[in-house]
TrEMBL record:
The gene is moaB. The keyword RNA-binding does not apply. Pathway: Cofactor biosynthesis; molybdopterin biosynthesis. CDD domains: MogA_MoaB (cd00886). It holds the Pfam family MoCF_biosynth. PROSITE patterns: MOCF_BIOSYNTHESIS_1. The lineage of its organism: Bacteria, Pseudomonadati, Pseudomonadota, Gammaproteobacteria, Alteromonadales. The keyword Metal-binding does not apply. This is Molybdenum cofactor biosynthesis protein B. Residues 10-153 form the MoaB/Mog domain. May be involved in the biosynthesis of molybdopterin. Keywords: Molybdenum cofactor biosynthesis. It comes from Agaribacter flavus.
Length: 169
């Protein structure tokens, strides 16, 4: 059996109100990522502003050491929720199955309220980007789906080979 590959992952919290002390979702993601043997190489909190989000995510996807990014927040329907509009234009490819599976799993937990979730994912410059709702519960649900795909030993397939192929076109 092959050894699991540790990845460098960025965590971005999108919020107009949270700070490091009140960011329970970001804290959960950091703990879960590290518990699964990965390294959180960078963590930030940005306002729910399209251009601030794009600036941070663009910097991270240009960094060859960051292989994945997980965001929390800004995926709902309030006037300020703009994570999908900010991040999805940066994708080279979308991972449609992630949002579909997230909502299916979330339906088991919160019922039809999941219809308001705009969780989504994609690949950009050999970096996987997973965008989750802002609640800690949603981050737990999301990480349960993401973790196997960032595990190099997960069969029949995972994203690790795609993420580590940067520069091998």
């Amino acid at each position: 059996m092959s050894e699991k590959t540790a990845l460098n992952i960025g965590v971005l919290t999108v919020s107009d109100t949270r700070n490091e002390e009140t960011d329970t979702s970001g804290k959960y993601l950091v703990e879960a990522i590290e518990k699964d043997g990965h390294l959180v190489s960078v963590k930030a909190i940005v306002k729910d502003d399209i251009y601030q989000m794009r600036a941070v995510i663009s910097k991270w996807i240009a960094d060859p050491t960051i292989t994945a990014i997980v965001t929390t927040g800004g995926t709902g329907f309030t006037a300020r929720d703009s994570t999908p509009e900010a991040i999805s234009p940066l994708f080279d490819k979308t991972v449609d199955g992630f949002g579909e599976l997230f909502r299916a799993k979330s339906y088991e937990e919160i019922g039809t309220s999941t219809i308001q979730s705009r969780a989504f994912a994609g690949l950009s410059n050999y970096t996987a980007i997973f965008c989750l709702p802002g609640s800690t519960g949603a981050c737990k649900t999301g990480w349960a789906l993401i973790a196997p795909q960032l595990d190099s030993t997960h069969k029949p397939c995972n994203f690790v080979g795609h993420l580590l192929s940067r520069g091998q076109k």
